[in-house]
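thread: overnight batch results

M.L. [08:02]
morning all. the overnight job finished for the chain we discussed friday. pasting input first so we're all looking at the same thing
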Amino acid sequence: MSQQQVEFAEFFESSWDPCRRAVLAGVGNPQQAEDRVAEAFARAWRSWGTVSRHPAPRGWVVRTALNTGTPWVPAGRARQSLGRPGR
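M.L. [08:03]
and the structure it wrote out:
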């Protein structure tokens, strides 16, 4: 195993449960939380050189997991769907 693999394995082992609990609090569905956290850790591994230097790698995983299930909506469309105040 490379040093990078060892570091990531240690991070994964110590961070899985706290990240899963945080995402579960955000999404409310245990299976969705687990799926999103798994995807976020896969993305973290692909970018481990950057994520490992992030000031809060667990925060990066949680934010990525929460964003994983968020559909992208163009800003103009989001404003349109909200309507205009006063109308």
